[in-house]
Amino acid sequence: MYQKTLKSKINFKGVGLHSGLVANLVVKPSAPNSGITFVRVDYKGKEKIIQAHISNALPAKLCTTISNKHVSISTIEHLMSALSGLGIDNATVEVDSQELPILDGSSKEFAIAIQDIGTTVQSSEKKYIKILKKIIVKDKDKSISIEPTNKNKLEIDYEIDFHDRVIKKQSKKIDLEKNGFMEVHDSRTFCLQKDLENIFKMGLAKGGSLENAIVVSEDKVLNQDGLRYKDEFVRHKILDCIGDLYLAGYSLIGKVNCYQGGHDMTRKLLDALIKNKNAWNLVTQKTKNFSSVSSYSPNQLVVNL
């Protein structure tokens, strides 16, 4: 019912997946109603603070990036997923590089550290964005939507289909209220070996290795220890989605359905949601049962890309 922050600061160090640069990361407690704030401590100018909000999100390849037009920070999705999934409303994230460390390619190390350090309950009530009408984003055969639910929680139903011999078609549903984050928190990022040449040409994955990503080659997984789950691929997609959705600024109450989506489609869904003020209400635990769909608004909004 009340907001939470960390009991004390947590330190991480590691290489950035795409930049290949070593980054030092500190996640600190912060005041009620401050949200998740990122700080580029290596930047000498005054404009070093970036609020983790959809209004600051940039189109990006293979990761989630936020910017204040002076500095940017990339690959924030795994940390954001851990903060969202473990109910952290307020935190300050300091980093001395352009990209967060990838660690093992999942949210596992972030989640373990947060659980170990513990949380502090704060004096302000927790706020939620409650969905009042359905919003759909479509791009050819891909789609992602968010719609109202009477269950007063966030549910995610995700499906992927890579038309290959390893990943194939996978689907999974999770319930964030029933600790669904922990079902996906240790699922790692992945790529197809055949796509690596193009990824390298884009100047990405400079810090990638079999220590922080799953690589699929035709009919096999190249990682020596194999997969953590048979459906680790769709689990990681959900992990990313949880982190990206937290750019709404608050926890969501609604149901997300996604087919073949990704970072950019989730960004466009949130952008459409936040800009349509009659599609949602900001509520608290006490009031979230009493919001109703606006009588003057259409039942849904469809965005075709």
- Summing up helix and strand content along with how strands pair, one would put the structural category as alpha+beta
Order of helices and strands: EEEEEEEEHEHEEEEEEHEHEEHEHEE
CATH C-level class of the largest domain: Alpha Beta
Shape field = globular
* Span of the ends, CA to CA: 38 Å
| CA gyration radius, whole angstroms | 19 Å
Low-confidence stretches: 291-298
* Name of the CATH superfamily of the largest domain: lpxc deacetylase, domain 2
Largest sheet: 8 strands, mixed
Which helices and strands, and how do they pair?
Layout (H helix, E strand, L loop, with lengths): L1 E5 L3 E6 L6 E8 L6 E5 L8 E3 L5 E2 L6 E3 L4 E3 L2 H9 L5 E5 L12 H10 L1 E7 L1 E5 L2 E6 L2 E6 L6 E8 L7 E7 L5 H4 L5 E3 L3 H6 L12 E4 L2 E2 L10 H14 L5 E9 L3 H13 L4 E5 L15 E5 L1
Parallel strand pairs: 4-9, 11-19, 12-21, 14-19, 16-17
Antiparallel strand pairs: 1-10, 2-3, 3-9, 4-5, 6-7, 7-8, 11-20, 12-13, 13-19, 14-15, 17-18
Structure report:
- The protein is α+β, with helices and mostly antiparallel strands and 305 residues long.
- It has 2 domains: 2-126, Ribosomal Protein S5, domain 2, CATH 3.30.230; 128-304, lpxc deacetylase, domain 1, CATH 3.30.1700.
- The chain is 18% helix and 35% strand.
- It is built from 6 helices and 21 strands.
- Strands 11, 12, 13, 14, 15, 19, 20 and 21 form an 8-stranded mixed β-sheet that branches.
- Helix 1 crosses helix 2 (108-117) and helix 1 (77-85) crosses helix 5 (232-245).
- The longest helix has 14 residues, at 232-245.
- It is globular, with a radius of gyration of 19 Å.
